[in-house]
Amino acid sequence: MTRLEAVIFDVDGTLVDSERDGHRVAFNAAFAEAGLPDRWDVDCYGQLLKIAGGTHRMTYWFESTGRPPAHARELAERLHPSKTRIMRRLVEDGQIRPRPGARQLIEQLTEHGVALHVATTGTRAWVEPLLRNAFGDVFDTVVTGTEVPDLKPSPAVYLEVLARTGCAPEHAVAVEDSANGVLAATAARLRCVAAQNAYTRSHDLSAATLVADGLDDPELVSWFDTRLAEDQRLER
User: Fold this and answer.
1) Which end of the chain, N or C, is surrounded by fewer C-beta atoms within 10 Å?
2) pTM
3) Where is the domain boundary, 70, 92, 114?
């Protein structure tokens, strides 16, 4: 068993409960601000999460509701900056909370000298303040969709984190919540622990090393406890 040197976290739905009460709210507010009748309820948004990336998600929606493809794409590209601005306001107002167990896991990893990184396709404009407000300055490397536009399940954002840090994939673990995230991590040759949420319980997460019901799931907590204890034993 190789030493655990780094943990690479996804953000949306993994570290924070951001989808239902963050992004969905911001999308709906952007629609209203633009005078559009479109609204995404909780169940509808859960289905739309199968489409990775906010601009792609809106484009798909606009096309599926009868807009011509070119108009749907133009509308989505025009609205996405507004959605990002609204999302940032929600973040700064403290509306996006850490998932149960997130802070405890981060503290445990920090105490054991494990480097903490982030690999997300979210926009840096809201990701940075969210991480700072929710967790402080604990992450060594943060790579976002602003720098790496390839969406998961592309492994590009994970490969960028590995390239920047020089960490070998066998010495790192990714923490994800969704099928696309797990596929992205494993395509980068990382072991992946999946902390599913209400939106991703129906996802195929079979490529993950462990599938847990959240970051506070005793099975996930025990998995990290065992890894960290084994590392301590090997150091003696």
Assistant:
1) C
2) 0.90
3) 92
Domain range enclosing 41: 19-92
CATH code of residue 49? 1.10.150.240
Task: List, by residue number, the catalytic residues.
Answer: 10, 12
Q: Is the domain of 109 the same as that of 219?
A: yes
Is residue 1 in a domain?
no
Q: What is the pLDDT of residue 236?
A: 62
Q: What is the pLDDT of residues 189-204, one digit of tens each?
A: 999 999 999 999 999 9
Q: Are residues 101 and 11 in the same domain?
A: yes
What is the pLDDT averaged over residues 125-140?
Answer: 94
